[in-house]
Structure formats: C-alpha cells, structure tokens
Amino acid sequence: MEVVLRFSPHVARRVQETRWHRSERTEPQPDGSLVWRAQIAEPKEMLPWIRGWGADVEVLGPEGLRGTLEAECERWRGCMGSEMEQTLAPPTLLIDAMARTVSTGNCSSIIYAIRRNGA
What is the C-alpha to C-alpha distance for residues 61 and 59, in angstroms, rounded to an integer? Predict the structure, then answer.
C-alpha cells in the first residue's frame, strides 16, 4: 500500500538526507515542503515514525492511516479537556505536536492533534 506524507519546509531537507525506506520517492514542492511516498506492507507500523515528526508532517494517504491519527487526536482531546479545545481553534490541515506535562490520566507528554479544515 502506498503511504504518502507531506513534510513541512522546516524538516524537508532532513527527510531527504536519510533513506527511510527502500521504496521511498520524494517530490520537492514549490513551497519548500516535501511529498514522501513509499510502498509499505503495513502502514500502521509507520505510526511511531510519523508521530515523531510532530507538526512537520501531514498524512495524505492512505485514508485509514490518517483516520487512525485522527482517532488518536480525539482520545488526546479527551485527556486535555477544555485546554485542548482552545488549542485546536481554528482548525487547519496540520498534525500538531504539543509537548505538555500531564499530571493525571493516561496521557503521555506529547499530544498529537489532527486539525481538519472546517471541522
């Protein structure tokens, strides 16, 4: 299955410096971002790597992988309550990573939020 990610201009060069997967292809974009593509047997195995890029990566496909991260966002939102709601307005098409110290619940210190345009 093809996994397609868009990396921000901030990390595009770093992504290109390393070969992350044997089937990867990269496409530099006019805005300085980078589209990364690879054929992956099990896209969910990429979740830790994708999460590690935080706000500098957006999952373009497959939809199921993006949906998995969206579901995580909703779970994190529940951990953070109203503080997270304020952070998420207005919605965008980015995955944001916000380092926070969480003293209660089952939340770790990194919160990933997928913001959907118009959501």
Answer: 6
Judge if the upstream peptide bond of residue 30 is cis by omega within 30 degrees of 0. Answer: no
User: What residue spans define the domains of the chain?
Assistant: 2-114
Could you tell me the pTM of the whole model? 0.66
Q: Give CA–CA dist 35/37, Å, rounded.
A: 7
Token duo for residue 118: 């118009």
Tokens of 100: 């926070």
Residue 109 pLDDT greater than 50, yes or no: no
The one-letter code for the residue type at 36 is W
Q: Which residues pair with 37 in a beta bridge?
A: 4, 25
Q: What is the torsional sign of CA 93, 99, 102, 107? A: positive
